[in-house]
Please model this.
Amino acid sequence: MSRDIRALVDLAALVHNAGVARAAAPRSRMLAVVKANAYGHGLIQVARTLAEQADGYAVSCLEEAIALRDAGLDKPILLLEGFFDAAELPLIERCRLDCAVHSAWQIDMLERYNAERPISVWLKVDSGMHRLGVRPEQTPACYQRLRECRSVAEHVRLMTHLAFADDRDDAYTRYQFAEFERATAGLPGERSVGNSAGVLAWPGSRTDWVRPGIMLYGASPFADGRPERPPLRPVMTLRSRLVAVRPCRKGERIGYAGRFECPEDMTVGVVAAGYGDGYPRHAPNGTPVLVDGRRTGIVGRVSMDMLCVDLRGIEHVAPGADVTLWGEGLPVEEIAAACGTISYELLCKLTQRVRFEYI
Ligand SMILES: *Cc1c(COP(=O)(O)O)cnc(C)c1O
Model:
């Protein structure tokens, strides 16, 4: 048996979650966010699976968009950060990509560009995230420039992004809605506000278009750990196997720097999974893991190729036993919370060494 770390990607779960998003925002069209290799799940497989349910896709760069076009996907594709350089415009035009416009310099470039077929743009408004976007007071003027620009298609759309997405009831989100309203009052274009958190918890964000990402992959955008209703189903399960089952004595210390000291004689399992696969190195002792479907915790530092698990109370396991690092039966959000990060980061950080299987 070779080293057996796998990401099992459950495409039926993906379809289910997209259905949850659609049902939550029934009057909105949906751009499925598939940036960063579909949050680590595989761009093309995910995009194809969602082809029926999504009205389009959102990605963060031209390379991702071209990969979708090359795979034959012909729905609208929105570049969430638009173009980074005027040299991208001919390809954007040729591939019929939609472009977010977040800064005046992009409008300057569009005005200097000579498109044969005008480009569809979404003016991004900074309603309070203070990352990308034009300021509310500049929005009408920017909108007007875009409408008058010969290289820009007739229907200019409007979008904004929520900053406090991980809180179901934060007044700041209401403030952002109001800022977006103020900025765009009287402008005719279609609106796009909601990300996953908006779709699930903020009716005000269910505008003409929504842009769910993480929920499609079955993870909650919220920090409170409350399950959704209807539940989301995890799409990715990260699986490996035990490579050794070892008796350890009281007082022995495990792995690099001996971070875990056996409080008694105990059995320790060694799993073929480490930070070289994308499992977080800073996972503390006790980070949950399933061995043969039974829940236990990791012990000692995660190394590049291996990590150790506490097998106390888990009888009859032998090398080769299945280990679930996250996914089915063990929400990735739990691992993320234990490691002080978010599911997004864990999902998109798996490395080349992990084998992907689509089921
Ligand atoms: C990534 C992203 C989304 C999706 O966010 P989720 O929290 O994953 O739903 C939506 N809009 C923009 C602009 C993004 O960058």
User: Anything to note?
Assistant: The longest helix spans residues 11-24.
